[in-house]
Design goal:
It is a single chain. By secondary structure, the chain is α/β, with parallel strands linked by helices. The protein has three domains: about 80 residues, Orthogonal Bundle (Arc Repressor Mutant, subunit A); about 100 residues, Periplasmic binding protein-like II (D-Maltodextrin-Binding Protein, domain 2); about 100 residues, 3-Layer(aba) Sandwich (D-Maltodextrin-Binding Protein, domain 2). About 40% of the residues lie in helices and about 20% in strands. The protein has a five-stranded mixed β-sheet. It has a three-stranded antiparallel β-sheet with strand order 10-7-11. Helix 8 links the parallel strand 8 and strand 9. Helix 1 packs across helix 2, helix 1 packs across helix 3 and helix 1 packs across helix 4. The chain starts with 8 loop residues before the first helix and ends with a helix.
Length: about 300
């Protein structure tokens, strides 16, 4: 029977890195160790578990059935140890740490800006790194600790994550304040469809969105002449042209030179949520940051 005293914490971390990276070289880089050092740790792991654990493949290594059986309890042990090492109390005013948040440029304006205002007042030592959202990588990024929070929609959120609703967003019709078509703050549906429209397409190059689906249900169409990859430049485009756009309301609340007009058209909005991993769910600092986010941006 193997002795637990021969199995140290660094061996468990190496085991976890090998399970995720499936490569001795990549695991060594992730652990800031040399490849021979990780190979030596793997040999010790094999002795402790009396199993090869990983065998060479064309690219890297592949885990044995025994290694795969150990993956879940290993993650649980590492998570529990990490929780043990966290301070029992979290003091925002004196905290020194970095939090990473993934989101779109819309999330930057609608969520992160008000969140940062409150964060700077209550926890000035906390730095925030904003990263672009990549739906297909969010789960692995949160698992690896590359991200702490992700600002998403329910449809794009992996079911393995914790998630909580922040708010529901609606679309409004926006154009420049002195646009010649403005009359009594309203537009007929005919006039709305006759105007040239701008649209934001995150994938790039798209000329169709939720507004077009809503018009199609009424047997109508519009003319989209500009497709942008970001909301950030859209206000400048609208101020400098006769284009009109359907925009999330939270983006235009205090933007000078623009006007909202009523259109007899209901365009379905979307729900913004914040998602995080079980890995940080019980962490006191992360829990405080999430609570502040809900307080400032929730509705």
């Amino acid at each position: 029977m193997n002795d637990i005293r021969s199995l140290d914490f660094n061996l468990l971390k190496a085991f976890h890195a090998l399970l995720e990276e499936r490569s001795v070289t990549r695991a060594a880089a992730r652990l800031s160790l040399t490849q021979p050092a990780v190979s030596g740790m793997l040999n010790r792991l094999r002795e402790n578990f009396d199993d090869p654990l990983f065998v060479r493949a064309q690219r890297g290594v592949i885990p044995t059935p025994r290694a795969l059986d150990l993956a879940e309890p290993l993650q649980r042990v590492l998570r529990d140890i990490e929780a043990m090492l966290q301070p029992a109390q979290f003091e925002p005013a004196s905290a020194q740490m970095t939090i990473s948040i993934a989101g779109t440029d819309y999330s930057l304006r609608a969520v992160v800006v008000p969140f940062l205002t409150a964060l700077r007042q209550r926890a000035p030592g906390i730095r925030v790194a904003m990263l672009p959202i990549e739906d297909d990588r969010v789960l692995s990024q949160l698992e690896r600790g590359e991200l702490d929070l992700a600002l998403m929609t329910p449809a794009s959120t992996p079911p393995e994550l914790h998630a909580r609703r922040l708010f529901d967003e609606e679309y409004v019709c926006v154009l420049r304040a002195d646009h010649p078509v403005i009359e009594n703050g309203t537009l007929t549906l005919d006039r709305f469809c006759e105007l040239d429209h701008a649209i934001v397409s995150y994938a790039g190059g798209g000329f169709r969105g939720a507004t077009d689906a809503a018009l199609e249900a009424l047997g109508r169409t519009r003319r989209v002449v500009l497709s942008l990859p970001s909301f950030l430049v859209l206000p400048e485009v609208l101020r400098a042209s006769d284009l009109v756009a359907m925009v999330p309301r939270r983006l235009i609340g205090d933007l000078a030179g623009l006007a909202l007009v009523e259109v007899p058209l209901v365009v379905p909005g979307f729900t913004k949520i914040v998602a995080w991993h079980e890995r940080t769910h019980a962490n006191a600092a992360q829990a405080w940051l999430r609570a502040l986010l809900f307080e400032v941006c929730g509705s």
